[in-house]
Amino acid sequence: MSSKSKIKFIILGIFTLFMITLTTPVKAASSEVPVIDGDFSDWKDIQKTTGTWDGNQFAMIVKGDMAYLYISADRPKNATYYNSVALTVNQKTSYLTIKTSQPITANSTNIQTTGDLWNSFANTDYPNSGSITVENDHIIFEGAVPLIQLEATPKDTITMTDSNYGLSNPLTADHLGDPSDQSGSSDSSQSSSDTSNQSNDASDKGSTDHTDTPSYHIIIDGHFDDWNDIPKTDIAEPGDNYNIKRGAMVSDGTDLYIFIQMDYTVNYAYNQLQTDGYELTVGNMTYSIQLVSPGKNNFANTMKQVGDTEQLNFNLYNETTGKNAVLTAGMAGVMPTTKGGTSDAMELKIPLSAIESSNQSGQTITLVNHNLGDQTLTVTGGSTGPWWLAAGGLAIATIGVFKFIPRRRNKAER
User: Fold this and answer.
1) Are residues 348 and 223 in the same domain?
2) pTM of the model
3) Does 386 have pLDDT greater than 70?
């Protein structure tokens, strides 16, 4: 093979490796939160504490406005599962009840739990659900609790005990990232909206692209003041000027935030929350989102007046792989309309770690619900790190090849 052919072969190989780098998903950072889906691989790098019974293991972490729990314990033989975990903040204790309605067997996978979080000092019950899977004859539970239900902030110290499975010494939650920077919200959002295409003419099937917005703090609590400064897109069927919904979607590079309000204008009819039909597209992956009450298959919706709120769980179903994750960072609430009526609204937070390929370079995420209208919410983002790393590697390698050429020639001349 001639020198020129060898050089061409080397450059072709470098270019091939460069393209492979661009199309390879980036592994999720260890600071990303677990997804409640019965797959515990996202807990493998999180430190566990061993209890006093049978090697049972426990972990608890706090990220943003959620606390995430992990419990691994001996499996009850073909019986239903029941547990009660104590969570303490500032000397105030809440009790998380975890139970299943069906027996747990050696082959149980992603069994949804039901139960509730009883805030003893506020005397308030909150429905809660999680997931149980059996591995090596051990029940492994994962679940999440909104900090607002514990009357906690991300800076508070939160401890867990589980007397049923041998965690008698309080386990202190680990804070992912720097707790001093956590405010239960996104602190460095990189999304914005081109508002020039927005109008009250909802018949215009448009797409609002959110890129490069200022930082803002979104707390998932069913009160929507923190969305006031974020531009909204009108959503309606063509020619329907009586049922105009609106929505927004932004991302801080770690989490995706979604806001939807039902008819906010004349309040003609469509004022109750739409719970299904949401299509989230990430690259070539499509997810369907269904809103449900914790522990149920539908949304109960007991809200009646402005200020009422209700917790939302939501199924994030991957239409390509058939994998479903049950996420808990959702709230519904009632908002006033511009004509003196009321309408339902919702806000959701989806960890980007729950979305496959979400960390690929230049990823585009869209949301549409054709039950509401054909308008599309769009976020363009994803880490650009892999692109620049690959491009830098290509440049360095290519420079090396061209430096190699004169050296070969000089050696030949000698």
Assistant:
1) yes
2) 0.55
3) no
